[in-house]
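Board notes (copied after class):
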Amino acid sequence: MNQWGSIGTILLCITLFAACRDTTTVHTERTPRAAETLVTNDSVPHQIMVGPDTLHYSIQLAYKLEEKAKDYTQNDITKIVFTYPQVDSFSATVIMDSVNTLVQDLLLQDMMGEVRYENLEERMTQFLQEYKEHKQEMIEFQLPSSNWVFEMKIDVLLNRPSLVSLRINKLEFTGGAHANSWTNYLTVDLTTGKVVDLKELFIDDFESQLLTISEAAFKRTVNLDADTNLVETHYEFSTGEFMLPPNFSVGTDGLHFYYNPYDLGPFALGAISFEIPYQEILSIIDTSILPLEPIEG
């Protein structure tokens, strides 16, 4: 083979080698598509990490009835009834005591949220005593009187290794056109024993995105068009713009927001609640506080 032939062979090898390299490059260019697939997978439904219920508790029942009553389930009697969880065991005794103290404080609060009573017995006794005094006054003025009722039930909605979520339902009737009811929620961090504030569940500068998503969910719930100006509706937001309620709970697969009666207008509006699935707010959640995982299947 002459010199020119050798050079030609070398050039041909280089060309073939380059062609092989081009083929490899084309293959590696598929990597961004794989990354895009991962981004898409981030929008699938998520839930709080599944694990065994680590907070072991029993349900307690305490009540007092007027003298003629025999059964606390009766509707035509004066009564004060409490149903609540009591933590019996937990890996950290300090956390167990903290949760039990929190529940006890809820039971002993007055309508203003202040702890007013020494114990549950005192609260129940005082309620019945006030009813008797009221009834006597009605008799003296020859006016009809009705039975009084106060019921409080605390439920455990979520029980995970890192968080426990409580729902507090209260109903009170001491005369008037109708009974009053309230529902409140508390989420407790089981690593600290403290109540979790909404902002602690999110990364910095989350407010704008959360409000936008929440307003859309609220409007869907109450059958308003997405572009409806809330000022033109009968929902009374104090600033004229959408505001989240102070009541929220951490659910298995989303956040739950709840407006009590009178929060957004007259009693006739009733309570209003809506859900935000985690996949809609995944990008702003602090997963160190709210650990999530995709829902299988």
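Comment from the instructor: The first strand starts at residue 46 and ends at 48. Residues 1-41 have pLDDT under 50 and may be disordered.
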